[in-house]
Design a protein that fits this description.
Layout: E1 6-13, H1 19-29, H2 47-52, E2 59-67, E3 70-78, H3 86-94, E4 98-104, H4 111-122, E5 126-132, H5 141-152, E6 160-161, H6 170-180, E7 193-202, E8 206-215, E9 218-219, E10 223-226, E11 231-234, E12 237-240, E13 247-249, E14 251-252, E15 257-264, E16 275-278, E17 297-303, H7 309-322, E18 327-333, E19 337-344, H8 347-361, E20 365-367, E21 374-378, E22 383-386, E23 398-413, H9 417-426, E24 430-436, E25 441-449, H10 451-454, H11 457-464, E26 470-481, E27 483-490, E28 493-494, E29 500-503, H12 507-521, E30 529-535, E31 538-545, H13 561-574, E32 578-581, E33 584-587, H14 588-592
Parallel strand pairs: 1-3, 1-4, 4-5, 5-6
Antiparallel strand pairs: 2-3, 7-8, 7-16, 8-15, 9-14, 10-11, 10-16, 12-13, 12-15, 17-19, 17-20, 18-19, 21-22, 21-23, 23-25, 23-26, 24-25, 27-28, 27-29, 27-30, 30-31, 32-33
Helix pairs in contact: 7-8
The chain binds guanosine-5'-triphosphate.
Length: about 600
Amino acid sequence: IPQSHIRNFSIIAHIDHGKSTLADRIIQHCGAVSDRQMSAQVMDTMDIEKERGITIKAQSVRLNYTKNGEEYILNLIDTPGHVDFSYEVSRSLASSDGALLIVDAAQGVEAQTIANVYIAIENDLELLPVVNKIDLPAADPDRVLGELEEAIGIDATEHNLVSAKTGLGVPELIDAIVERVPAPQGDENAPCKALIYDSWFDNYLGALALVRVFDGSIKKGEMMRVMGTKQDHQVLDLMYPNPIAPIKTKEIRTGEIGIVVLGLKTVDAIQVGDTITTAKNPTAQPVAGFEPAKPFVFAGIYPIETDKFEDLRDALNKLKLNDSSLSFEPESSMALGSGFRTGFLGMLHMEVVKERLEREFDLDLIATAPTVVYRVKKTDGTEVEIQNPSELPEPQKIDTIYEPYVKATILTPQEFVGNLITLLTSRRGIQIKMDYLNETRVLMEYDIPMNEIVMDFYDKLKSTTKGYASFDYEPIGFRPGKLVKLDIRVAGEIVDSLSIIVPEEKARSRGLAFVNQLKELIPRQLFEVAIQASIGNNVIARSNVKSMGKNVTAKCYGGDITRKRKLLEKQKAGKKRMKAIGKVEVPQEAFMAVLKLD
Ligand code: GTP
């Protein structure tokens, strides 16, 4: 099939606007899977994705389609919609020539619709506006198209109206893809230039690279060079991605996407964003304009049983094979022992990783509260980067602390604007823009410290707006902040893994809220436990966990021994998620309490 008959496109949308459902429908219409094989959602393959109904890893499929007797190849690249995974969106878009912009006909344009369109525009993609869910009684396609023109300024005269649920409008949409998405441009006689836009680990085949070939081709058996590492590897196998099982091929040609097997044991050797070229006749320049993933949020992850440290290391290494955005380094905590400081793209990413570690590797873990990265200029003129609040230098050695800011985009029905302004102001937000898209919907832009949104911001935003507002953010660099480290002492000892960095003006109220939460969360022990919040040596808040008095087994003194044993076992099971800090048992919830201080 000639290059002119290849179409590479992504689907972008705000979360839940129907990307995966539409992708399934397109796959089905192209006949790549039978109705029987069409299990709930072919595109979302991971267990957690099915349960949570979200897409985490971008998936690609190659489809055959015949229009007016001519054969076409449609390469469909599904992208995740959640704010944490916008990195996956950008790498998917870098390998596409066009994008379907899906908007829910009842909900209209949301924050991630806008964010994704900007990434698509940066990548010079042909945008096809698609209004989905037109079967819904509340569907209002005209209003939605108006919002697209108003909020983003895109021309929506040519658009498609579809229902991914019923399939209405899907054949017309596929025709529009063939007509409007440009064919790949690329020189088949030039040296090979292929972008690695995804990589993962397969137990049998080793590390796999999903590539888009921009120039030349990749042939089975050939020696290829990974330009970033300057290493040469032989191509053991080539495959086209397919919804049922990959299809083997001898060559991946200009404009195509495919899976390359290089027989590598780790994905480190094939980093996403790197370029593959022919070893004998390498291309002069790698594919440009690709930014690697950067973790924004860090947390400590510790095994509850200290002898599971090596198991945790193995598990993290295995997860990293599939998730190049995950980073981790060993760290030790006085309170928690040996664990890893782990970097995440955002809070959802952190939750997913922790859940996978516990589920797939059967580990019991304690995660500390997430923190952003701070830059500290010291009085001696040097600068350090802090990923863990307990590493903050002593106050007298600090000249300035810089904290990361984000640009937050919020879309909301206008009746919630007042509440949102109150919330954003209390989070130290600075208003940049407020636009009415129409009579009922408002677009707000704020610069806001990232520290204020890794806390419970998203939940607060949803509760303030009855779930109607949507939110997206992008980092905009570091700014100086008046910040201090708040330490927590349990029974007189500083628990390093509970330290947090807070704005000076909020230190007292946060400290008080924190000790009160801890008082509720730390179970009664055999003795009274003092809990204090301090800045340096100044205690700013305190409370006590009362002693529980007699051991519960005392009740059955002289009683039936099996009953006594059962009670003890019950107590032990209840302790599973506890970590002993000194003589005090502290539950996992205590480490997260800091997320709910307002
Ligand atoms: P993420 O992958 O989580 O970003 O979401 P998504 O955009 O892929 O959305 P998904 O396909 O999971 O659809 C979200 C919800 O909308 C599901 O409950 C779908 O069944 C429903 N849905 C999708 N398309 C339609 C449609 O055309 N009509 C109706 N009524 N519901 C739809």
